[in-house]
């Protein structure tokens, strides 16, 4: 079962500090979960100035129970980075179509810069 997760950071003065403190642990966990198959995609949400203000992830778990278990150790949750978390059940059509070589994405990034 796939889930779209949208976590929005707090807007207080220490919000970026909290994100920075746990960011590496969040990224490492995400990489591990990607290898295991439970994280399909993730990205940071930016404001108009390019400042990180949240995150988006497409996750795959057998049930909502496992999703809730993940929240218990996700660094952006335990580190109080995400002030709000929206969860939507979703169904990704042909997820394998995103499995392209790194060069494909690098060329797309060059086009957008």
How would you explain this protein's 3D organization?
Residues 1-89 form the YCII-related domain. This is YCII-related domain-containing protein. Belongs to the YciI family. This protein is α+β, with helices and mostly antiparallel strands and 113 residues long. The protein has one domain: Alpha-Beta Plaits (2-Layer Sandwich). Helix content is 40%, strand content 30%. A hairpin with a 5-residue loop joins strand 2 and strand 3. The longest helix has 22 residues, at 15-36. The mean pLDDT is 91.
Whole-Å distance between the termini?
A: 35 Å
Helix content: 25-40%
Q: Number of helical runs?
A: 4
Low-confidence stretches: none
The domain tally reads 1
| Text of the CATH class | Alpha Beta
Provide the CATH superfamily: Dimeric alpha+beta barrel
- Binned strand content: 25-35%
The gist of it:
Belongs to the YciI family. The protein has 113 residues and is of the alpha+beta class. Helix content is 40%, strand content 30%.
């Amino acid at each position: 079962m796939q889930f779209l997760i949208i976590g929005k950071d707090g807007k207080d003065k220490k919000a970026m500090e909290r994100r920075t403190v746990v960011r590496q642990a969040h990224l490492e966990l995400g990489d591990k979960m990607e290898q295991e198959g439970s994280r399909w995609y993730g990205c940071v949400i930016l404001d108009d100035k390019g400042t990180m203000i949240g995150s988006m992830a497409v996750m795959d778990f057998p049930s909502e129970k496992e999703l809730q278990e993940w929240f218990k150790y996700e660094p952006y949750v335990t580190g109080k980075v995400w002030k709000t978390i929206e969860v939507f059940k979703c169904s990704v059509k042909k997820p394998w179509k995103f499995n392209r070589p790194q060069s494909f994405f690098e060329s797309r990034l060059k086009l957008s810069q």
